[in-house]
Amino acid sequence: xxxxxxxxxxxxxxxxxxxxxxxxxxxxxxxxxxxxxxxxxxxxxxxxxxxxxxxxxxxxxxxxxxxxxxxxxxxxxxxxxxxxxxxxxxxxxxxxxxxxxxxxxxxxxxxxxxxxxxxxxxxxxxxxxxxxxxxxxxxxxxxxxxxxxxxxxxxxxxxxxxxxxxxxxxxxxxxxxxxxxxxxxxxxxxxxxxxxxxxxxxxxxxxxxxxxxxxxxxxxxxxxxxxxxxxxxxxxxxxxxxxxxxxxxxxxxxxxxxxxxxxxxxxxxxxxxxxxxxxxxxxxxxxxxxxxxxxxxxxxxxxxxxxxxxxxxxxxxxxxxxxxxxxxxxxxxxxxxxxxxxxxxxxxxxxxxxxxxxxxxxxxxxxxxxxxxxxxxxxxx
Length: 381
Fold this sequence. Notes:
By secondary structure, the protein is mainly alpha-helical.
């Protein structure tokens, strides 16, 4: 490399790709560092698509390469492509959250956050246009971002979000961060409302044919709130029942004087011991679900953390229901005399809930798979 002339390092192929561009694309951090040590000016070269090495690294989410480039050339972030887009624009447009986070965490890049391209789009606009709502939420939490910047079409980020298929909670999270529709969009909606005619029959037909896609947002929001309310009621009921069962155990307590006074009569039975474990699990899981619901409704938390608690609640509710069912069957089996008829009855009860148990096991399997895959992704990053 020391004998390699500078002209060769800067020489590009038919598409204008230099060795540094290729190294940035594949994420070869060591080779990028070696090239920059030999000739740092090569970092400012652009290919035929008007992309610098920093643009290319940001597009691929190669954060370590981005660190090397910005360290060797502190002003490289000012480079723009033919659409007047910075590397942050490209990262947001490509959905690379790690690359976006790289720019958001460093104060020296604050000037890029609200920068507009030829179409007037900020990085936040581009993330919303391409459906990367996680990046939209990520940028909305940045203290210097202007969530109400309009592009040349007069649209704010919120206009783009509202026009897309974004769930109610994400929209509310953006509103909490100060994002608002533009005046033009509000006027369009007002005009559309004035010109609209009642089409209840058509709406119902569309709802049947298309599912949730045919329903108004207000109806979907009501259904979501009703579902949360019902779920909270169920877990509260489970918590009450299991708490009561813990102190009114099957078989009762010993009333005779002695060291065992007040202890459970059937405490030495295996079925009774498993009953206690299942009952305790149901109580704990129901409390976890209640906690998740209350935490998710806490508007102080950001959207990402609230979303995690919302996702946990149904799992806790399902498993607490299963544990309560198991505790009930074991409690019944413990106190009722053992014979073939009772055993068959218990098996039949389990058969009724066979499909439910299988679905729970599949849910557990998918949850574990998701957890493992997310852990692998984090390790790769």
